[in-house]
């Protein structure tokens, strides 16, 4: 198992899954604390119309058009939710429900209307991604990790999610204090001169960027699960935000690795022949972790 | 073509789908209203995503028992069971841990959906020939809908609607004031659970047509739309049923006119169009009505300030005020006050003096709090009280510019 085959077939998806999980879990910590957990849900639904529109405009499946389209759709949805909430005096949950279902429906309709049979773009792919197919054929073993020619053939998704992860970490590291203060006490943050509204928007944009990059590689189902489950489980483990962040990173990594391994090898151990959906399994494992935390974690009750 | 579709002239299948979608829309709209008034709309998102593992497991069980895995009532029963499990999880997480409801909803929907996808991939490997069809529950599909499917929809929808109507009083009470409802002997947790069960039933019934991702739209959008048109809970429920039925019927009809128009998304988008139109034009809560009210308020305020200035012999320079005064005939084109303006200014000034008298008076000072600059004093005080004040401060004084 640990050999050339592992490096070529399993290492890239494992890394992509782990990076995606951490990139979503980090902003998820703040979203859960701010009671905006479902923003991640909304964003991951509206990514579909964004990608379809980008495809219709450019006529091909390119990385940057897709990313920009998805990010644009995420921003439009956030603006629309806020608009409906303010103008219609509707509660945030309902405004969210109206917006993301309508935009998702628009995406499905556009997809059916346009000729996408020649390219790999369909709803199933959008939902569960294709983690298993992100393989590194040029790798000939561990030494390929030092071979520039082979490294150049790494799946592009890996580079993209790695850059996104670094950007997310930088955002949280640089804005740590204002983020922490405005998350727990927005009024106090304003009194300190922190632009809390702007910071909240920046957080949502960061979450959207993480969602879009992760979505590209692993599908929207992991994105929602990782936004919420690892931070929620971490919330039950500790009272300190610093510790919570570390716990959530650990839970996200554990979900990604364990989920991938169970999906790939679990059925073989049970006597089956084919693997199951890695994205679905990663989400399931994160749910198991949350369930365990909800039952046994030291700070599971409000104190 | 569209007219044919709306008049049910496009053949047997299109007619079945339109009628089924309409009855689903009515039931979903009315039921979703209770969820919306309780401010828990997104619980339906968790419930709908939680149906997926049940569908897969029911398929596996039915195949294992030697039956046809795609038997609709069996699949729906399975989806109902797993939706119930999801609902119990949301409630348990919210009540027994420190997590807020939105985190619980998000966790349950993603985890159940992920587990469902794992089960679907297992089914694909189990019996490659017979797996077809389960994916259609994601986005819904109406092609090849049977009469029995339509009947299931109609009966299920009617049943849920009837239950919702029977239970509407306690559900509305809990939505508006759970504390008071508890004191009148209504169990809040049980009523909430009943509401959710109705939502779950609608989700299960609607899976086949609009799919589990978009059934949420049918529960939320009509309720939000109806809320713009009425402030009475019962009317909102009825209107939401109407809007939901309309979206279902028109959406199904439109989608029958061309092959590349999937039913579920069209229904959702019609519902959204109704919502957007209501957001704009509804009286009272609509955006245009609010803008118009704002403008009226602005005009009355400017007019009054302008008249007070004129009455005190001060010139008015502000352009909006001048325009308004001219339009009412209180100012001439060369900005000289007219007789009519003088009379009106005297009235405004006297009312102002009356308010001041009210404010100084011991017995009436409380009433003076209603003086926001816009309220007519005659609507606050009786004519006797006014006469008494006028006797003290004298009648209107002539205004001399």
Automatic annotation (TrEMBL), chain A:
Origin superkingdom: Bacteria
Major site of localization recorded for this protein: membrane
Compartments it resides in: Cell membrane
Keywords: Cell membrane, Membrane, Transmembrane, Transmembrane helix, Transport
GO cellular component, one term: ATP-binding cassette (ABC) transporter complex
GO biological process: response to zinc ion; transmembrane transport
SUPFAM superfamilies per the UniProt record, alphabetical: ABC transporter involved in vitamin B12 uptake, BtuC
Membrane topology: Multi-pass membrane protein
Annotated transmembrane regions: 6-26, 38-57, 63-81, 93-111, 158-176, 196-215, 221-238, 245-266, 278-297
InterPro entries: ABC_BtuC-like, ABC_TroCD
Family recorded in the similarity comment: Belongs to the ABC-3 integral membrane protein family.
Protein name per its UniProtKB record: Manganese/zinc/iron transport system permease protein
From TrEMBL, chain B:
Keywords of the record: Cell membrane, Membrane, Transmembrane, Transmembrane helix, Transport
A single GO cellular-component term on record: ATP-binding cassette (ABC) transporter complex
Pfam families per the UniProt record, alphabetical: ABC-3 (PF00950)
Top-level taxon of the source organism: Bacteria
CDD domains referenced in this protein's UniProt entry, alphabetically: TM_ABC_iron-siderophores_like
InterPro entries in the record: ABC_BtuC-like, ABC_TroCD
Chief site of localization: membrane
Single GO BP term: response to zinc ion
UniProt similarity note: Belongs to the ABC-3 integral membrane protein family.
Name assigned to this protein: Manganese/zinc/iron transport system permease protein
Organism of origin: Primorskyibacter sedentarius
